[in-house]
Amino acid sequence: xxxxxxxxxxxxxxxxxxxxxxxxxxxxxxxxxxxxxxxxxxxxxxxxxxxxxxxxxxxxxxxxxxxxxxxxxxxxxxxxxxxxxxxxxxxxxxxxxxxxxxxxxxxxxxxxxxxxxxxxxxxxxxxxxxxxxxxxxxxxxxxxxxxxxxxxxxxxxxxxxxxxxxxxxxxxxxxxxxxxxxxxxxxxxxxxxxxxxxxxxxxxxxxxxxxxxxxxxxxxxxxxxxxxxxxxxxxxxxxxxxxxxxxxxxxxxxxxxxxxxxxxxxxxxxxxxxxxxxxxxxxxxxxxxxxxxxxxxxxxxxxxxxxxxxxxxxxxxxxxxxxxxxxxxxxxxxxxxxxxxxxxxxxxxxxxxxxxxxxxxxxxxxxxxxxxxxxxxxxxxxxxxxxxxxxxxxxxxx
Length: 398
Prior knowledge:
Layout: H1 21-39, H2 43-59, H3 67-82, H4 93-104, H5 108-128, H6 130-133, H7 143-224, H8 229-254, H9 275-280, E1 286-291, H10 299-319, E2 325-331, E3 335-342, H11 356-367, E4 371-376, E5 382-389, H12 391-396
Parallel strand pairs: 1-2
Antiparallel strand pairs: 2-3, 3-5, 4-5
Helix pairs in contact: 1-2, 2-3, 3-4, 3-5, 4-5, 4-7, 5-7, 7-8, 7-10, 10-11
């Protein structure tokens, strides 16, 4: 069910003491703390005293909307009570709460001015000019009470400032946490987008390679069906193998989308360890040479190298009238170098190597900090050369 309460925003601290509890508490201090003194007064004066006792606490209900006005009302009522009752903190709770609230809400300077004015008026009425105003001797102000009252006002202001600083700190921390949460969500969305792009590239490589092979073998089978049925059977067998391999690789690529409780895929991870299977099903003779000391590669580099070789062979089969291809792999100290060369001519490929297959291979290499170049050779044929760094990737692994 939707909560229809007013939304306060993630950066605003919750309000404390804004309900009727504070008003009732202060009212109890005023009434029960001074009922004996009020009862001892004459009947007419009792009405005035009870009215003054109630005015301060009830005014606190509006202390957040008009804190300075409430402070002035509560302080005036307290000064009135000071002319009837002996000095006591029990009927000064309302102005103390009003002063605290005014300072906490950021009105410290005007609240100080109002409080100082009320304090001066209280000292003048019950102390300096008490005899001229006819204030009873029993309720007149002494030096001790004046000093304690000044200390109480100072304490209320200190507590108000502390509460305001704490509220500002909580608000800032809440805002920072909200910003961190938003940044984390943005990072997750960016990672999800990168993962979708990676999956799209993987699917392009898988389907492009195997469907191209199936198309070539199907054409061979149709051509040899009547005259050479045994070779046509070999073409159909190659089609069956290529289609099964394509299905396995598609399942492996899409395996990251399965629920966590499902079993992990049994298909081995794609990498240069499976290069022999790739070249055997390339649809044309492919020779492979390896230089340098062979070593385990980071998973992303190993997978990218396999895909680059796969896409390069697919382009040879699609666009070049080649009799064969050569794949050279060199394990350098800090990088892996790939060279895929064919002896045909790039008939359908763009002369600058800007076709979609070349662009995909280049983007894959650059995403790992490597480079890729592709183009025709002066002596004939076509060369795809890629360099993939391995040292930085290895250091980044846990």
